[in-house]
Amino acid sequence: MFNNSILNIKKRPYAFAKIKGSNEYPHIKGIAYFYKVKAGVLGSLQLEGLPLSNDICQKPIFAVHIHSGGSCTGNRIDPFADAMTHYNPNNCNHPYHAGDLPPIFGANGLGFSAFLTNRFTAGEIVGKTLIIHSTYDDFTTQPSGNSGVKIACGEISS
Question: What pTM, to 2 d.p., does this model score?
């Protein structure tokens, strides 16, 4: 059980990212917050406009990763190519990259996630990007978990 001293959340997040969908997914928008806490970083992610599925057994699950690039720009083939690859300062195998985060489950186009991690500090990710992928992360396939195309991106600022 957590006691209040472990999380010790400050009023304001240390860093945040405003998330926007690619041209193919223009309805996606959201916000991510990163708080410095005693145990590491507490993150929260809120999204709307996520793709829907009518198949009850295929409800959408989206991979979430911090990428090493600092820009949500790209090209015709990859709209967020400049986000580069997963943030992985220790050169670990997937899913042990510092930037590998828990998936987000779509619920009628909405999504919410909160997580606690000590894989990075809040300061380390400022200037990086947060990417939402089109499918779930299988936590096995190298280098990125077979998580599909990048459908939304946010630049992490302080």
Answer: 0.92
Question: Phi, psi at residue 5, to the nearest 5°?
Answer: -75, -20
Determine whether 67 is exposed, middle or buried from the number of CB atoms within 10 Å of its CB (0-12, 13-18, 19+). buried
pLDDT digits (tens, 9 = 90+) for 19-56: 999 999 999 999 999 999 999 999 999 999 999 988 88
Nearest to residue 83, comparing CAs of 27, 11, 10, 152? Answer: 152
Q: What digits encode the pLDDT tens for the residues 97-141?
A: 999 999 999 999 999 999 999 999 999 999 999 999 999 998 888
**DSSP string over 19-78:** EEE-TTSTT-EEEEEEEEETTEEEEEEEEESPPP---GGG--EEEEEEES-S-----SS-
Residue of 131, 135, 145 lying closest to 105 (CA atoms) = 135
